[in-house]
Inverse folding.
């Protein structure tokens, strides 16, 4: 598919999406957060990250409503644990300014939580955040751990009221959600460090799929997880090779895989920032 076709699909997705309910409030919160965290961040940070460094962690699943006045919806599997645990580890490692939307984790001035439910809300918020962070360039990171719906019912073809249940089986045609990673990389935040995630249930195809995503979307790394072992290990797939990251139950900090994952990702991001500035 040519990039023009993809861009057209993305534009029509946003044009037909129901607008965010509290768009002005979200923009205000986001701008306040970015401004607040542009000043010095204190003494005790332990890494090479700079005061402008910001991470957008996405977390949890997105829903696809079946009715405009939604009673029923299709959900995507995700407990939100990976995003929340990764956010905690980001704060531990980088004393970084973290923008997280999804389930709550920490709360102070360094954390902004922007909750979402539907695929429409998620993608509109991702676009808002990415474009707001555009000026931060290589210092910002997108860590896209949310489980994003691949299929949806376009708003204009959705029934307004609750689907009648008395008329037999229900046929629903789902359209494909346009992949936003390419436009995030090319337009919204082209200089940001971008980590995407790939979840499969069949371990035989996992690495191949993650490698294809790395090449197709030109992200800096893809974190590959197999559903049943996702809490034990992940594989970080990048152009410098594949690294297996495991948890280590003998070490308290490392008893969750996200701790070791974030340590690796923060290190890669620091190298990326240095290379971008040299
Ligand atoms: C993931 O792979 C996340 O790591 C998990 C986290 C959903 C496994 P939990 O929230 O689980 O701790 O229970 N997310 C998948 C991201 C995603 O939807 N990727 C798309 C895909 O796999 C491509 S962008 O096709």
């Amino acid at each position: 598919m040519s990039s023009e076709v993809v861009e057209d699909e993305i534009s029509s997705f946003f044009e037909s999406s129901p607008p965010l309910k509290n768009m002005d409030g979200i923009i205000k919160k986001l701008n306040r957060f970015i401004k607040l965290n542009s000043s010095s961040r204190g003494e005790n940070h332990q890494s090479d990250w700079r005061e402008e460094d910001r991470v957008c962690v996405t977390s949890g699943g997105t829903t696809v409503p079946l009715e405009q006045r939604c009673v029923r919806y299709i959900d995507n599997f995700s407990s939100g644990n990976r995003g929340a645990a990764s956010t905690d580890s980001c704060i531990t490692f980088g004393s970084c300014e973290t923008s997280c939307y999804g389930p709550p984790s920490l709360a102070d001035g360094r954390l902004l939580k922007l909750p979402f439910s539907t695929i429409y809300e998620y993608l509109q918020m991702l676009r808002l955040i990415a474009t707001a962070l555009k000026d931060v360039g290589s210092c910002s990171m997108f860590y896209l751990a949310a489980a994003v719906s691949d299929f949806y019912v376009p708003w204009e073809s959705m029934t307004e009221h609750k689907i009648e249940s008395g008329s037999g089986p229900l046929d629903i045609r789902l359209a494909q959600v346009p992949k936003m990673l390419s436009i995030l990389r090319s337009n919204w935040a082209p200089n940001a460090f971008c980590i995407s995630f790939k979840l499969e249930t069949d371990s035989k195809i996992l690495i191949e799929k993650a490698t294809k995503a790395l090449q197709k979307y030109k992200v800096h790394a893809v974190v590959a997880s197999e559903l049943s072992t996702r809490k034990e290990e992940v594989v970080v797939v990048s152009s410098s090779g594949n690294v297996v990251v495991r948890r280590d139950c003998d070490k308290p900090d490392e008893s969750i895989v996200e701790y070791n994952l974030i340590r690796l990702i923060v290190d890669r991001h620091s190298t990326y920032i240095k290379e971008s500035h040299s």
Q: What stands out?
A: The two ends are 35 Å apart (CA to CA). DSSP finds seven helices and twelve strands in the chain.
